[in-house]
Amino acid sequence: MRKIILSLAAIAMSVMLAACQSGDPAGQIGSELGLDLSGSTVTSKVEDHGFHGDGTTFDLLTFEGDSVLQQIQESSDWPPLPMDETTTALIYGLSDDSYQIGPYLNDGSGNPLFPEVVQGYYRLIDRQNDTEQDILERYSFNFTVAVYDSEENILYYGKQDT
Fold this sequence. Notes:
28% of the residues lie in helices and 26% in strands. It is built from four helices and seven strands, in the order H-H-E-E-H-H-E-E-E-E-E.
């Protein structure tokens, strides 16, 4: 009986912790990206992760002032735009006469969730366990990508889990 009660208490605690974390998307995003996003406003949110954790997340955060831009410029994790080919394929897709690849972060109809950003910075975090294989040649994707539009003070954040 004691084991059952302890198990139920552990489950209840896990549910409460998960509920607390889901209440502050800017805090979660900031933690993952290594940024202090306090004072931001989440103005758009797409979340379709299911029971097994597969799905897409897309958030748009706006800021007053340039404190986030300063953090990004001081970090070596955020290269300036234009982005590399891999990140471009994941966000916007690439195509030529012989093939089409991506976008992987899309609205379900194949349209990219991220708008075109001309001036700013980006970050790609590969969360796959096996990072030996090129990210675009894998059968599954677990990555986070963010683009900061320095003209509009907007952070676009996307997460893909398959």
